[in-house]
Amino acid sequence: MMVDLVPVNEDVLEDLLTLAVAEAQPGEVMPPASGESPGEPRTTWTELRKGAFREYHRRCRVNPHAFVPEVTWAVKARGRIVGAARLALVDGDPEVREVGLWLGESYRGQGISSEVAYWAVAAAQTMDAKRLVARTLVGSAVARRSLERIGFEVADRDGGLVGTLTLP
Ligand SMILES: CC(C)(COP(=O)(O)OP(=O)(O)OC[C@H]1O[C@@H](n2cnc3c(N)ncnc32)[C@H](O)[C@@H]1OP(=O)(O)O)[C@@H](O)C(=O)NCCC(=O)NCCS
């Protein structure tokens, strides 16, 4: 399936939030909101979390006037917004980028993660990164399989997964 990565402008942001609320959990799609701890299970949507989702994506927009350590894109397939991907600096190390991806439940299991992986590798290479890392908080079998298929070396850590991929 052909996928596009598109900037998260305000219109796209509302479509993305609608999808996230209908077909994903806050813990899968965004960092903890202010006052929430990283280990807290985040399974339900609240107004606070919806606001934090918007602010998170606004913070992650490419800005020609300021350095942005993490950038997000919406993933589009068959003309619809189906999820979001991100690339982030890790501990300020220019050789590493953390990659993240979530899809709405009805778009999972259709091979979209492999398509997004091509884009993530290319984007990280243009940023002169040497390695990609991916982390999940829970040890999902689909996340493990999808990372392994892309070529990540996957290890269990703190109940979740850590994947590492050396870029060609
Ligand atoms: C993880 C996620 C991004 C994977 O994307 P996806 O496009 O659904 O993944 P794919 O369709 O490429 O499937 C990946 C593999 O998992 C396999 N798989 C699907 N359902 C499975 C299941 N229930 N158990 C085990 N493997 C499963 C697929 O068969 C495929 O393996 P294959 O290549 O050997 O056929 C997506 O499921 C998601 O958004 N999950 C919630 C957010 C998340 O956990 N993100 C962390 C990603 S690092």
What are its keywords?
single chain; 168 residues; alpha+beta; Aminopeptidase; 7-stranded mixed sheet; 5 helices; binds coenzyme A
Radius of gyration: 15 Å
Return the domain count.
1
Ligand catalogue: coenzyme A
At CATH level 2, the architecture is 3-Layer(aba) Sandwich
What is the C-level CATH assignment?
Alpha Beta
The CATH topology name reads: Aminopeptidase
Query: Strand-residue fraction?
Result: 25-35%
Q: Secondary-structure element sequence?
A: EHHHEEEHEHEE
What is the makeup of the main sheet?
Answer: 7 strands, mixed
Q: Give the helix/strand class.
A: alpha+beta
The backbone outline, from C-alpha atoms, is globular
The named CATH superfamily: Gcn5-related N-acetyltransferase (GNAT)
Determine the number of helices (DSSP H or I, runs of at least 4 residues).
Answer: 5
Strand order of the largest sheet: 1-2-3-4-5-7-6
Low-pLDDT stretches are: none
Instruction: State mean pLDDT (0 to 100 scale).
Output: 94
Level of helix content? 25-40%
- How far apart are the first and last residues' alpha carbons, in Å? 24 Å
User: How many E-type strands?
Assistant: 7
InterPro entries: Acyl_CoA_acyltransferase (IPR016181), GNAT_dom (IPR000182)
GO molecular function, one term: acyltransferase activity, transferring groups other than amino-acyl groups
Organism: Promicromonospora soli
Protein name: N-acetyltransferase domain-containing protein
